[in-house]
UniProtKB/TrEMBL annotation:
It comes from the Bacteria. CDD domains: APH_ChoK_like_1. Residues 36-254 form the Aminoglycoside phosphotransferase domain. This is Phosphotransferase. The lineage of its organism: Bacteria, Bacillati, Actinomycetota, Actinomycetes, Pseudonocardiales.
Amino acid sequence: MGRMHADEHAIDTTLVRRLVRGQFPRWADLPVTPLASGGTVNAVYHLGDDLTVRLPLTSGGASDITKERRALGALGELPVAVPDVVAVGEPAEDYPWPWAVHGWLDGTPAREGRDAPARDLAEFVRALRAHPADGPPTRRGKPLADVDTATRRAIEELRGTDEPFDAEAALAAWTEAFDAPPWTGPPCRLHGDLMPGNLLLRDGRLSGVLDWATAGVGDPAIDLIPAWNLLTADTRPAFRDAVGDDDATWARGRGRALSMAVIQLPYYRHTNPVISANARYVLTELGVLTRSR
């Protein structure tokens, strides 16, 4: 992993130990181990056997600590485990933002193109949507118009790279999704970031879902993105059948997957191999990248 953001704060094991020791002395003697992660917002460390420490990398991610705590506190029963927020730390030790300690969830992060429980994913999405959802759409629950400019700009940026990318096909796919009928139903409860690394598997089943900072309400299409960032052409139909969405919602979900991938790839292609590989996978599944790299 390279430095991903120009304003990224330097975080290492020594800093995490100092923060924990200073604010939560009951955990001062627990081992601190960095976790390999494709995450772009937080540095994550394993604390002892049962805890994780999450520290925002930039000021833009600092507000996510409060958002995630609120989102997790509002959840009712789900068919999979979600993290418990065990504690929230304060700025200290030259670290300028709040940080969080979560309960550890066992499981292996999902990987794109591997066997994945399509029907378990659909069950989770349906169960989350069944939760009460009030208020205006949150950022990832808004119409595709909200990301139209950024998506088109990213397509043009990718056109100028050495990626085997078909910009005209991408524009056509984006236009098709953009022109799909908008969501007119009541707001749905959303996770908003169902990337493979946020989906934990045990014994071939979906066992947990991480990273709730983008959770909110709005258009349910955003939570269809695992159809393209995780599943294959063979397993995608089972997910679509089980989740039960209409053609327009499916089209908007495909547009969301495309938008995220074309924005991620030029930004992370030299600094985050996990995210850039996943973006290439999405674009290959959508037929706008001619081969994986």
